[in-house]
Amino acid sequence: MEKSTRKVQMRTVESREKLLNASLKLFTEKGYYNTNTKEIAKVAGISVGNFYNYYKDKGDIYYELVEKYLDESKIAISDVLEHILENNLGEDEIIQFIVEYVDKQMERAIISDRFFTDLQVIAKDIENLSRILEEGNEQIVTILEEFLSKYPKVKKRASYKVMAMMSFTLANKISTSVIVTKGTEVYREYLDEMIAIILYYIFGIEWRRV
């Protein structure tokens, strides 16, 4: 009985993962509004009927993709800051580490320009999506604030909360331009601006790529 239950649970996890991957592919290539559940099920190799065993509609699956992206972002940011604290990195090491990290993360970002553009509109249509975006942003600010309070080399210009909010708000705003210009000539310019903001407002380091 237990083995049978585990098999069902494994199939459920596998099916949901297939649907998530198929949806991400289609939302990235075609956009949210040009994708339907029939297409998602076909790409996932799952019947349309089974789709509705896991998700009520494409908005439901889009919500989960955004939630997953936010969770992965929070974990990645926490890991980076913990690495810097635990290894007591010097200024040159921090610059190298942050530059390499941001370069890699933005190249691998699951949110394409189309996905991101749709998100701005969809957030108004899908119930609770705006709320989880706001909560996710607030949690990232808290992570930054806690780091600043522990970082021995911090150059305090205001309260840790204000510094965290300022660095996140500015970097987040620039990241919009980074995402929508990916693959264009100005992509690197915006990416470097985001890196410079992170280094200056969190670590007090002035930087320009040479």
UniProtKB/TrEMBL annotation:
<dbReference type="InterPro" id="IPR009057">
    <property type="entry name" value="Homeodomain-like_sf"/>
</dbReference>
<feature type="DNA-binding region" description="H-T-H motif">
    <location>
        <begin position="36"/>
        <end position="55"/>
    </location>
</feature>
<dbReference type="InterPro" id="IPR050624">
    <property type="entry name" value="HTH-type_Tx_Regulator"/>
</dbReference>
<feature type="domain" description="HTH tetR-type">
    <location>
        <begin position="13"/>
        <end position="73"/>
    </location>
</feature>
<keyword id="KW-0175">Coiled coil</keyword>
<dbReference type="InterPro" id="IPR001647">
    <property type="entry name" value="HTH_TetR"/>
</dbReference>
<dbReference type="GO" id="GO:0003677">
    <property type="term" value="F:DNA binding"/>
</dbReference>
<protein>
    <recommendedName>
        <fullName>HTH tetR-type domain-containing protein</fullName>
    </recommendedName>
</protein>
<keyword id="KW-0238">DNA-binding</keyword>
<feature type="coiled-coil region">
    <location>
        <begin position="119"/>
        <end position="146"/>
    </location>
</feature>
<dbReference type="Pfam" id="PF00440">
    <property type="entry name" value="TetR_N"/>
</dbReference>
